[in-house]
Every structure is written in C-alpha cells, then in structure tokens.
Design brief:
Order of helices and strands: HEEEHEHHEHEEHHEHHHEE
Mean pLDDT: 93
CATH class: Alpha Beta
Helix content: 40-55%
Number of strands: 10
Number of domains: 1
GO molecular function, one term: ATP binding
Shape: globular
InterPro entries: P-loop_NTPase (IPR027417)
Distance between the termini: 16 Å
Radius of gyration: 19 Å
Protein name: LALA0S06e01134g1_1
Structural class: alpha/beta
CATH topology: Rossmann fold
Oligomer: single chain
C-alpha cells in the first residue's frame, strides 16, 4: 500500500473485503433481514477519526452505491449538560469525570437503544446530536434532525477510546504504584480510586459495542504518537471557534487533553501493539504528525 494513501482509502479497502465475508455469512441474516456490518474506528483526539470516517462513507458511496452506510460518533451519546453536572457532583474528587469525554460520561441507555435498533435493522432511528460549543465549551445535547431509514448495510462508529480494554485491579494497582515513583508520569496525577471508576466503566462499553457477540464488527485502529494530541486538539478547537464563535482557549484545551492522557498510558499502547477491535478483523493504520499513512497491518 502506498504511503501516500489516506486512512480513509486503506480503511475502505479493508471494510469492503470484510463486508464480502459478512454478506456471504448466513449467520448475518435473521428472519430475512441482514444485520449491518459495524465498523469501529478508534484513534486519539485530532488523529482524523471523524474526517476518515466520513471519508470511508464517501468512498463507499462512489465505489459501492448499492450499499447504505451511516457514520456515528460516540460523542453523540454524551450525557446532557445537566446529567454531566450531576455526575461531576457525585464524583467531586475525580478530575477525570469533571466534564465530558472519558468513559462514564455517556448516556449508556441511549447508546444501548440505538445499537439495538441498528441490530433489528428495520424502520427508522435517530442519531443523537451533541453541540460541544454549548456552555462555553462544556457542551450539551441538542435536538437531532438526523433520522436514518433502515435497513443500512454498514455502520461506522468512531471514538477515541473504542477498543480500550479494562485491566484487572491488580494490574491497575501495579501500574499506578510504578508510575507514582516516576517523575512526570501522567498516571501519578490522579489517585488510584479515580482510575478504578474509569476502568470499571470501560467494561460496559466493550460489552455493548466491540465485544458484543450479537454484532458483526471490524475495527480500524489509527496508531499515532499521543504527544501530537495537544496540537491536533487545538487545531480542532480553532476550527470550532471560527465556525461558531465559541470554544475552548489554549489553556482550556491543554487542561482538557491532560484529562485523557492517563487513559492513553493505561490502554492505548496495548491497543496499538496487540489489541483487537471488533470480532471479524482489525486493521492498524500507523500515521505521522501530518496524519499521513506510514504503514498498515491486519490482525
């Protein structure tokens, strides 16, 4: 594969190959209705998940106009601003839950209902909408106008922590103890109990999404240096401010990203090197700071 290929191009080729297997598998059809192939796209903030997900949809529309595909972001399912405030008040000492973003800050009931409707693949459903510019960048859910007619063939779900696997209490404690002795290690920023809450939440996401055996799913992992996230996230916020007039300052962005860094330390390294995303194959796409594809491999 040419290094000049985009993430969307290599991902689309992979998805089409896996969709053919999906199409030929009789287990994907129930009562005459074929379930969609769910494609999970995971990567750090700013790595191009949303851009690449939309790119896959566009390329599919050109190369396979017979296939109906939709794109959904895990961000669409954040708790409302009011519910997020309630969560923050419930965990006042956990800085990672003070605001949207991390596992535990999504409306899991809403997400479960949405995935169930996709699995049934009949009628119609609405994709929730979330406006990150609301409340001075804290964000809030807004009324959705995205109604999807079912059935669909391919569902693309993108999110920064998709594929992260919770670890045992013993492993978590060991990693935290080791980090606490290392100057500058981001894990030492928060007490162990804060990680315990995040770690426990991850299991419910995995069960509902990429480890759900009722789904037929594949994954695309965008592998990058997490130090690029600060610059990438600032680029995104600048674009948001230019479009809406609202968004986070540079100081707010740095504080915002720092909340995510411990999770990258705990889970992302493993996902990049040996993790799997989905139950029918995983594509790992390594990119550089300019988001150009360096190499790809399949698991």
């Amino acid at each position: 594969m040419s290094t000049r290929a985009t993430v969307a191009q290599v991902a689309t080729q992979f998805v089409l190959e896996r969709y053919q297997d999906h199409f030929n598998d009789p287990r994907t059809t129930l009562n005459g209705i074929r379930q969609p192939l769910v494609v999970y796209i995971s990567g750090p903030q700013g790595s191009g998940k949303t851009f690449s997900s939309e790119g896959v949809k566009q390329i599919l529309g050109k190369t396979r106009p017979d296939l109906e595909s939709i794109v959904v972001s895990i961000d669409d399912f954040y708790l409302t601003h009011k519910d997020q405030q309630t969560l923050s008040q419930h965990y006042p000492d956990n800085a990672m839950l003070q605001g949207r973003g991390l596992p535990g800050t999504h409306d899991m009931q809403l997400l479960q209902q949405f995935m169930s409707r996709l699995c049934e693949n009949t009628g119609s459903t609405q994709i929730p909408a979330y406006d990150k510019s609301q409340y001075a960048g804290e964000g809030d859910r807004v009324e959705s106008s995205k109604e999807v007619q079912l059935p669909v063939d391919i569902v693309i779900v993108e999110g920064w922590f998709l594929g992260f696997e919770s670890v045992s209490r013993e492993s978590l404690t060991c990693m935290w103890n080791e980090a606490s002795t290392q100057r500058g290690n981001v894990l030492g920023v928060h007490p162990l109990n804060n990680y315990t809450e995040i770690n426990a939440s991850l299991k419910s996401y995995a069960d509902l999404l990429w480890e759900d055996t009722k789904q037929f799913s594949v994954g695309v992992i965008i592998a990058a240096d997490v130090e690029n996230v600060y610059a990438w996230r600032q680029e995104q916020e600048n674009d948001l401010i230019a479009k809406t007039g609202h968004g986070m300052s540079e100081e707010q962005v740095r504080s915002f990203v720092l909340r995510y860094m411990p999770c990258y330390e705990l889970y992302y390294r493993t996902l990049k090197t040996k993790g799997n995303l989905g139950n029918a194959g995983t594509l790992v796409v390594n990119i550089d700071k300019q988001r150009s594809v360096v190499n790809v491999n399949q698991r």
